[in-house]
C-alpha cells in the first residue's frame, strides 16, 4: 500500500478525518511554499500554492495569527472552515503544497460559501484535476 498521505471523502481508518500527514507542521515546509509558491487572493482567504515541493504528497497549512483577531474562538472558526473546505475538495487537488491565510470576511459566511471560494481559487491557480 502507498504510504503517501491522502485526502479522502469516504470513511476509512480515521473516519472522514484528514490524514495527519496532510498537515504542514515544520517551518521549512511553510517557507518552501511561501518562497516558491503562487499567490491567489480570494474573497475569504489568501492561498499560496507550490507544486512539486512535496513530491507525491498533498500538504496544507493554515496561518492565522493574532493579527487576524485577538479572540482565539474566532481564529479557530476561521481555521475550521478552511480545513473543512480543504478536506471536502481534497480529492480534486493533485500533490502540491498549499498555505491558506484567512481574511476577516470569512467569519461572516457559511461553510458552503467558503467551499465555493476554495474551489474557485483552486481553478484560478490551475491545480485542480478532473476525476
Write the layout of secondary structure elements.
Blueprint: H1 27-36, E1 38-41, E2 45-51, E3 59-62, H2 72-89, E4 96-102, H3 111-125
Parallel strand pairs: 3-4
Antiparallel strand pairs: 1-2, 2-4
Helix pairs in contact: 2-3
Note down, in words, how this protein is organized:
- With 131 residues, the chain is an alpha+beta fold.
- It has a single domain (22-124), classed as 2-Layer Sandwich (Ribosomal Protein S5, domain 2).
- The chain has three helices and four strands, in the order H-E-E-E-H-E-H.
- It has helices at residues 27-36, 72-89, 111-125; strands at residues 38-41, 45-51, 59-62, 96-102.
- A four-stranded mixed β-sheet has the order 1-2-4-3, with helices on both faces.
- Helix 2 (72-89) links the parallel strand 3 (59-62) and strand 4.
- Helix 2 (72-89) packs across helix 3.
Read across the widest sheet, the strand sequence of neighbours is: 1-2-4-3
CATH class call:
Alpha Beta
The poorly predicted ranges are none
The tally of strands reads 4
* Number of structurally distinct domains: 1
Q: What form results from the Cα inertia axes?
A: globular
Alpha-beta classification? alpha+beta
Amino acid at each position: 500500500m502507498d504510504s503517501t498521505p491522502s485526502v479522502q471523502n469516504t470513511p476509512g481508518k480515521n473516519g472522514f478525518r484528514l490524514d495527519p500527514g496532510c498537515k504542514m507542521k515544520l517551518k521549512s515546509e511553510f517557507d518552501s511554499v511561501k518562497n516558491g509558491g503562487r499567490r491567489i487572493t480570494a474573497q475569504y482567504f489568501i492561498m499560496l500554492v507550490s507544486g512539486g515541493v512535496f513530491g507525491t504528497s498533498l500538504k496544507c497549512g493554515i496561518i492565522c495569527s493574532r493579527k487576524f483577531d485577538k479572540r482565539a474562538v474566532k481564529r479557530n472558526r476561521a481555521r475550521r472552515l478552511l480545513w473543512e473546505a480543504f478536506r471536502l475538495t481534497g480529492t480534486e487537488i493533485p500533490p502540491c503544497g498549499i498555505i491558506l491565510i484567512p481574511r476577516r470576511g470569512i467569519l461572516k459566511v457559511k461553510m458552503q460559501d467558503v467551499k465555493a471560494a476554495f474551489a474557485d481559487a483552486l481553478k484560478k491557480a490551475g491545480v485542480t484535476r478532473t476525476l
